[in-house]
Write a structure and sequence with these properties.
The chain is of the alpha/beta class. The chain has one domain: NAD(P)-binding Rossmann-like Domain (Rossmann fold, 3-Layer(aba) Sandwich), CATH 3.40.50. Helix content is about 45%, strand content about 10%. The chain contains 6 helices and 4 strands. α2 packs parallel to α3. The radius of gyration is 17 Å and the shape is globular. The two termini are about 35 Å apart. It comes from Salarias fasciatus. Belongs to the short-chain dehydrogenases/reductases (SDR) family. It holds the Pfam family adh_short. This is Dehydrogenase/reductase (SDR family) member 11b.
Length: about 180
């Protein structure tokens, strides 16, 4: 993917890592394959894309780029859904990785910024996919007004529009109703 971006656009100036995956695999009886799948996408995939975006910026002397990790409220709070605890652990990892990235960029004397945007429930197919075998459980979340995709897009625009001397580290966005 990054080779294609380099060939078509010279490289990456802004990277928005927005992939995320959850399985309803709890800690006491969850499937190892589900856990590995979440780690591969939510942690390893994000880390690989972050590394490649940084390398793209570095080789082209882009020192005002930005790396944004779209995380989750679950990266800051353990929500009492037993089947989301492993997913929550991957999102706590994203929080730690973003802070680690900021520290490494600072040590490298880079002006590239790193931000973690952590939304609560967003109107999407997340719960329908998570509870595909239990549609009643998925539909229970429809009672609460969720954030909309445009709310997250507006947060990205806000972060990207910050003056060069401003580092917005973390943005937590929640709907007014619980979760």
């Amino acid at each position: 993917m990054f080779a294609s971006i380099k060939a078509q656009h010279q490289g990456v100036d802004v990277c928005i890592n927005n992939a995320g995956l959850a399985h309803a695999d709890d800690l006491l009886s969850g499937k190892t394959s589900g856990w590995k799948n979440m780690l591969d996408l939510n942690v390893l995939g994000l880390s690989i894309c972050t590394r490649e975006a940084y390398q793209s910026m570095k080789e082209r002397n882009i020192d005002d780029g930005h790396i944004i990790h779209i995380n989750s409220i679950c990266g800051h709070v353990v929500i009492p859904f037993a089947d989301l605890h492993f997913y929550t652990a991957t999102k706590f990892a994203v929080t730690a990785l973003t802070e680690g990235l900021r520290q490494e960029l600072h040590q490298a004397n880079s002006l590239i910024r790193a931000t973690c945007i952590s939304p609560g429930r967003v109107e999407s197919d997340f719960f329908n996919r998570l509870y595909v075998d239990c549609p009643d459980r998925a539909s229970g979340f429809a009672a609460f007004k969720a954030l909309e995709a445009v709310d997250i897009a507006n947060a990205v625009v806000y972060v990207l529009g910050a003056p060069p001397h401003v580092q917005i580290g973390d943005v937590v966005i929640r709907p007014r109703q619980p979760f």
